[in-house]
Structure formats: C-alpha cells, structure tokens
Design brief:
single chain, about 260 residues, 7-stranded mixed sheet, alpha/beta
C-alpha cells in the first residue's frame, strides 16, 4: 500500500473525509474546513504533500479513489467532501460504492479543456526538468505575462509558495495519468447514489467549468436551455453511439442543490 499523510481537525459527528485538488495538499483546504461540522479528516493524495510517491502506473482515478476509500475506512468517515481532484476521486469511489457516504460535497468538479490540459502538462515537464525554486520562477513569469495576478497581486506569492510546497517527484506522474482518466465514464452507477449532495461551482472558471456542476445536478444552464453536455467529465465534443454530440440530458440528478458563484 501507499502511506498517506493525514490530519484530523475537530471532533464528534459527522466524520468527513476531505480531499484536495490536483498538485495541491491538505494545507490548501484551510478555507473549507471551518464550514464543515464535526470531525474533518484531511489527507494528502499519493504523490502529493507529505504522502508517499509511488512510481508511474499508480495514479489513475481508481488509485485516487482508493486513497479516499482507505482514509474513510480508517477513520470511520460517513461523509465526503472534495475539491477538483478530491471531488473526482470521491465520485469515482461512489461509482463503485454508491451507498458509501451519507452526505457528499463536490467542490469545483473539473473538465479539462485543451488550454488547461496543456498548462498541466507544461507543469509536469517543468517538474521533471528543474528544481522547485526554478519551476516557481518559470511558472510565475509565464502566468504574470498572461495577466493572472493583475486583479490580485498578492496571489503571486501565494502561488509561489504553493509551487514550492509541491511534491516534485509524484505530481508529474499524477498529472500525466489522472487527466486521461475522467472520474465518471459511465453515468449509470452514479445515478444510484441517494446521499444528499451539495455541488459548488464558479462561473467563468477556465478549469472548473460550472457546466460540469450542472451535469452533476441535472440542472439546466442559465436561461433554461434544455439538455446538458456529457459524458462527465470528458470533452463535450466526444460522443457516444445513440447520443448525438455526447449529450446526456439529466445526467446525474444527485439529490441536493448547486451553489454557483461569479466573483
């Protein structure tokens, strides 16, 4: 097995396992934790933070779902919350065990468009070629040129510290393997989930498309246009036999609601 770094915050019920995003660590969950009641079990996915970093071939979405499963089992978690990769891994686990959790929070579920995919692969290349301090310099220079920090200059230093805290050996493997393995390929198993779910998205996010959150909820886009693109989460240009354009109206309809932000 893979040894995972775990941190427990709070006490009492419910016990919630909390998963972070791709390239991040449990320390990036600080803003989320105060909003969750009871006991929060934060952990670093394999190849991230302070967890072990197995070699290539151990970073599929099933592998990340296994991380969620093992931590949840070890601490008796009855609820799950996850952001981005953490959300995807929890959803993959629910595909295998639809009744595993009593409540679910899905934050910023992602569908990688070509630009976001290229950015992650660029980061993987840099991590494999340079020490972390040099990677930070290169990424910050490129992102600054793109205007990423124009509206919030303080984010530049936050981004630097995030890069310097990366697990340089494991994250490149995670990027290359999990971005080719969408959390939900067949929507049928996830439709058997009956646990209440809160799905949180942000309009205009280039990586975490709010449309993915609507698919999870089975909700129409703004303006009430019918149908939602799918499957989840491959590119919406993909299609399946009998489903023109890959559209799967009412894909999941997880019980719960969608919370959207635009700021």
């Amino acid at each position: 097995g893979v040894r995972l770094a775990v941190e427990v915050i709070g006490n009492g019920d419910p016990v919630t396992v909390v998963g972070h995003g791709l390239t991040q660590s449990r320390r990036d969950l600080g803003l989320l934790v105060p909003f969750l009641p009871g006991t929060k079990v934060l952990f670093d996915f394999r190849g991230h933070g302070e967890s072990e970093r197995p070699g290539p071939g151990h970073y599929s979405m099933d592998d990340f779902a296994a991380d969620v499963h093992h931590v949840a089992e070890a601490f008796g978690a009855t609820c799950a919350a996850g952001a981005s990769l953490g959300a995807g891994a929890s959803l993959r686990l629910l595909c295998h065990q639809p009744d595993r959790f009593r409540k679910v929070v899905v934050i910023l579920p992602a569908r990688l468009r070509s630009e976001a995919r290229a950015g992650l692969l660029r980061l993987a290349d840099l991590l494999e070629s340079h020490p972390l301090d040099r990677v930070a310099d290169i990424v910050l220079e490129e992102e600054e040129a793109e205007g990423r920090f124009d509206g919030f200059p303080a984010a530049r230093e936050f981004r630097r510290q995030s890069i310097l805290g990366m697990n340089g050996d494991g994250i490149s493997f995670a990027i290359r393997e999990c971005i080719e393995d969408p959390p939900i390929r067949d929507p049928e198993p996830i439709t058997r989930v009956t646990a209440p779910a809160l799905v949180i998205a942000k309009e205009g996010d280039p990586v975490h498309d709010a449309e993915v959150a609507r698919e999870l909820r089975g909700a129409p886009p703004p303006g009430g246009a019918p149908g939602v693109p799918g499957p989840l989460f491959p590119d919406p240009g993909d299609s399946r036999p009998g489903e023109p354009g890959g559209r799967l109206p009412g894909l999941l309809r997880l019980p719960g609601r969608v919370a959207e932000g635009s700021d």
